[in-house]
Amino acid sequence: MKPILGRRPFLASLLATPLAAQQAATPYKPQQSDRPEVLEGDEPGFKPMFNGKNLDGWDGDPRYWRAEDGNLVGEITPQTVIKSNTFVIWKGGKPANFELKVDCRITEAGNSGINYRSVVVPDTVTPTNKFAMRGYQADIDGRNVYTGQNYEEKGRLFLATRGVMARVVEGRKPIILGALADPRELAAIIRTGWNSYHIIARGNQLTHIVNGKVMCIVLDDGAEGTADKPGRMMDGLIGVQVHVGGPMKVEYRGFRIKEV
Prior knowledge:
This protein is mainly beta. It has a single domain (43-259), classed as Exo-inulinase, domain 1 (Jelly Rolls), CATH 2.60.120.560. The protein contains 3 helices and 17 strands. It has helices at 7-16, 19-25, 183-188, and strands at residues 47-48, 58-59, 65-68, 71-76, 86-90, 98-106, 111-120, 133-141, 150-152, 157-160, 164-168, 175-179, 195-202, 205-210, 213-220, 237-242, 248-259. The strands form 3 sheets. Strands 1, 3, 4, 6, 11, 12, 13, 14, 15 and 17 form a 10-stranded mixed beta sheet that branches. Strands 2-5-16-7-8 form a 5-stranded antiparallel beta sheet, with no helix packed on it. A hairpin with a 2-residue loop joins strand 13 and strand 14. It starts with 6 loop residues before the first helix and ends with a strand.
């Protein structure tokens, strides 16, 4: 019997190839028995937004923002109480369609939020504040009253509360299209420590997910906004907030984004 030439090199190369690469080389063919599945870890394509060492790549007032223990930290002390909300802003671009993931921890009296598709606006209360923002916000608060909702900072305000899918239209309050879950049940899954946030922006649909649970969905059919006028924004800046209301501390870790 003649030896099969090239068999050993082929096996060696196969064993040296990571399993994920082997699977990726085989196109997926849907089967009738297949169902959607929970993914462990992130899908490919996410990139880090924060280096964990300093504020390089971000722009904000260092009196309130710093890097600490690998986290992005915002803190208001009794000596630095503010009269206006202020942000630290990511300098990596103005994403349009994207997914953003980050973990957050906040003190009980704290109030913060992740702004996206936002613009920097003048602050009439504190003119020296160069980091006021207007735009969509995934709300976060230590007392867990608003966490997960979509609130348009300095704009159209409450777009979708926790547990609903809402449509934003011109000239009236947002319309509830349907219920996603009982708001009390959604509140119960938000922990006092670290919580995982996932924001999905696709066209005029905006989805907020916390700890794997959909908190709210907005379909924004409102008028187009501009730098000078609130309204639907299809791209813009990303930033995180420290809020008026007394001393507080908020920490963010694992900031990452996938533009699509």
